[in-house]
Sequence to fold (169 residues):
Amino acid sequence: MRIVSRLARLGTFCLMTFVAGSGPLLAASQEGPADSAECKELTARIVERTGARFDHFSPTRHTVFFKDPDMVLTCTTHQLTGVSLSWQASGFPPNAWFALAASAGNAVTNVDLKALEAAARKCHRLALKDKSELADLELPKAKVECQAFTRDGGAVVLDIWINDKAAQK
Fold:
């Protein structure tokens, strides 16, 4: 279930990335979740806390793309809101990358930076050890999911989601 859910989100992310590169022909003409007050606030917080620049919205307006550094904010619903970062130079990102991930995650979840960074590192280690290359951890207000591997030069994908159990009931 966890793997299917992760792969479904990754597939959606890849599809949205592909469609986003298709140009103005597919541009959305209506508002979407990324236009909500909550998502606009999270976008501003990510820019403020990470130094990233807003790049563009996905055509479905569920996703906000940032540059320098590259990251993606998904705003589907409150329970499905999170930030994603990837490291493609190897299976072992530098310390600064984990600090950046914690800052972006903090902008979305308001969870303590140290707790998020520790969870991101632990998730990374667990994913490297697991045959599926996937791992996840739950914190009181955040869920950290990751994929990490060393084959083919290695890479890491890290997602930090709002984990609002009260809102899910």
About this structure: The two ends are 20 Å apart (CA to CA). The CA atoms of residues 64 and 111 lie 21 Å apart.
